[in-house]
Write a structure and sequence with these properties.
The protein has 226 residues and is α/β, with parallel strands linked by helices. It is 44% helix and 14% strand. It is built from 7 helices and 7 strands; from the N terminus they run βαβαβαβαβαββαα. Helix 1 packs across helix 7 and helix 3 packs parallel to helix 4.
Length: 226
């Protein structure tokens, strides 16, 4: 049975690759984008099936809330949430920001939005009896560290996401997988899986395998209570 999938940052490289794999599996997608309508139109045209999309500025709490409500209501519930949205501080316009401005941007989108969207969707899953999957994107260099301003900033943001993912899993009596190999099987819970994939950004060669691994994660039920 087809699942309802919410993917944030769907116009990015990882997000669009994940979207293609889920669409190929016959799932129904709600794709989030920020501002690049041309890329979104191209992606939708390339995907098999018909899918919904919306543009939301995830640096804003009201847009975070609106994304969750819109995606859940339009889709009739969400079975899988994959959070790929994040600030690219290595290219313009963010590249020219100061260290402090980059930190603020990463905290707003990569950390705060990830936390608030995951908590909102996990709450809805629990209240509606949905056995779902939540996947937050991490970074395997968090523990060992890498020198440089950009690495410091990125490690701080993704380190927070990793810790949050583990804690969210425990908050809802779940078990999280924080392994560093893409495609590791998440430990199963009775209701929802929360996974932090810390390998997807470790190197380009691994990115190709990540969408396939993500799309194979199985929910225990495709039924969403109204």
């Amino acid at each position: 049975m087809a699942r309802n999938i919410l993917i944030t940052g769907a116009t990015g490289g990882i997000g669009s690759a994940v979207a293609r794999r889920f669409a190929e599996n016959g799932d129904s997608l709600f794709l989030h984008g920020f501002s690049n309508r041309r890329i979104m139109e191209t992606l939708l045209a390339d995907l098999p099936g018909k899918h919904a999309h919306g543009f939301f500025d995830l640096s804003r709490p009201d847009h975070q809330d609106a994304l969750c409500e819109t995606a859940w209501t339009h889709s009739g519930g969400i079975h899988v949430l994959v959070q790929c949205a994040g600030v690219d501080i290595l290219t313009e316009p963010a590249k020219s920001l100061s260290y402090e401005e980059k930190l603020a941007a990463l905290l707003a989108v990569d950390v705060t939005a990830t936390i608030r969207v995951a908590r909102d969707i996990s709450r809805r899953m629990t209240e509606n009896g949905v056995n779902g999957v939540i996947i937050n994107i991490g970074w395997d260099a968090v523990e060992r560290g890498i020198g440089g301003d950009s690495a410091e900033l990125f490690a701080a943001a993704k380190g927070a996401v990793t810790a949050f993912s583990k804690s969210l899993a425990q908050s809802v009596s779940l078990t999280a997988n924080s392994g560093t190999a893409a495609g590791n099987e998440a430990k199963r819970s009775d209701r929802i899986e929360v996974e932090n994939d810390s390998a997807v950004l470790s190197g380009h060669s691994r990115c190709a395998s990540f969408p396939a691994a993500v799309s194979q994660l199985k929910t225990h039920s495709a039924e969403v209570k109204s």
